[in-house]
Amino acid sequence: MVAPAMNVRMWTHAATQANLATLRERGVHFVGPNEGDMACGEFGPGRMAEPDEIADAVSDFFEDSAPLSGRRALVTSGPTHEPIDPVRYIANRSSGRQGHAIAAALARRGALTTLVSGPTHLPDPAGVQTIHVETARDMLAACESALPADIAVCAAAVADWRVASQANEKLKKNGSSVPTLEMAENPDILATLSATANTRPGLVIGFGAETENVIAHAKAKRERKGCDWILANDVSPETGTFGGADNTIHLLSAAGVENWPTMSKVDVANRLAERITKHLGAAE
Ligand code: CTP
């Protein structure tokens, strides 16, 4: 836990903010800084949090630092790669940041967490059992082998289709025609987990990546896939969400819609982990 104190210009500098994002991703907690007058005569964020605030944050942390202990969580993350031939594949722009951050947030709160990750450049989160997969079918098999679980969060950008028959040898140019790829539909992992007969996780959560009519499409998606919550987000290119650092979430459940402000994917993960903790606590 860190309680930073520095001049407002230092605090808002891009280099400082990038370092803070790295520390947050590694699970470091911050108290403050607060906004106000500074010794150097400037005003803004950078004042150290008051000693009482720091003491309260530390005691809150240790009082209930593992509210999900005894719970099992399963998280999917990243893209899938669907092979065309031994050297080529179909992929998407998912970075895996959101799913990895969710797995880390659940594990930090004490959940025994399995992360099933497609190919990403991210390190495996600390304290999480990470299973690496390439294709949607491998991802489903890894998820099923990780059951039973109390919580399943499907954050992966799973390819909807794969190439129906992968070539065993590298496809070669033949000078006269281009190859035609016949596609087959991939299994829907979220829908499959939601419909699992005896081992359905008690709380199944999916994402709804939309580029228009975000809430309406996400509502329909929640019903179609049979999951409990959908975290809907706008992934239009101009939002920078897909592959970017921030996310704007609308949480859809049977109770209605909660609109969350735009925040970093790490903050989304922490907020989700807190909502899950509250929900499971209330359901007991
Ligand atoms: N999902 C999944 N398996 C798939 C496709 C999607 O588990 N084969 C999950 C994603 O992890 C996400 C949710 O389903 O939690 C919605 O994914 P999204 O890409 O928004 O929806 P699609 O199912 O692809 O539907 P559409 O393309 O019609 O928007």
Q: Any descriptors?
A:
alpha/beta, 284 residues, two-stranded antiparallel sheet, Rossmann fold, 2 domains, globular, single chain, eight-stranded mixed sheet, binds cytidine-5'-triphosphate, 16 strands, 8 helices
Topology:
Blueprint: H1 8-12, H2 14-25, E1 34-37, E2 43-47, H3 51-63, E3 72-77, E4 82-85, E5 88-90, H4 97-108, E6 112-117, E7 129-132, H5 136-146, E8 151-154, E9 161-163, E10 183-185, H6 189-194, E11 203-210, H7 214-225, E12 229-234, E13 246-247, E14 249-253, E15 256-259, E16 263-264, H8 265-283
Parallel strand pairs: 3-6, 3-8, 6-7, 8-11, 11-12
Antiparallel strand pairs: 1-2, 4-5, 9-10, 12-14, 13-16, 14-15
The protein binds cytidine-5'-triphosphate.
Can you give a write-up of this model?
With 284 residues, the protein is of the alpha/beta class. The protein has two domains: 8-64, no CATH class; 72-283, Rossmann fold, CATH 3.40.50. The protein contains eight helices and 16 strands. The chain has helices at 8-12, 14-25, 51-63, 97-108, 136-146, 189-194, 214-225, 265-283; strands spanning 34-37, 43-47, 72-77, 82-85, 88-90, 112-117, 129-132, 151-154, 161-163, 183-185, 203-210, 229-234, 246-247, 249-253, 256-259, 263-264. An eight-stranded mixed β-sheet has the order 7-6-3-8-11-12-14-15, sandwiched between helices. A hairpin with a 5-residue loop joins strand 1 and strand 2. Helix 4 crosses helix 8. The protein is globular and about 75 Å long. Bound molecules: cytidine-5'-triphosphate. Cytidine-5'-triphosphate is lined by residues 76, 136, 154-156, 158, 160, 186, 188-190, 206-209, 221.
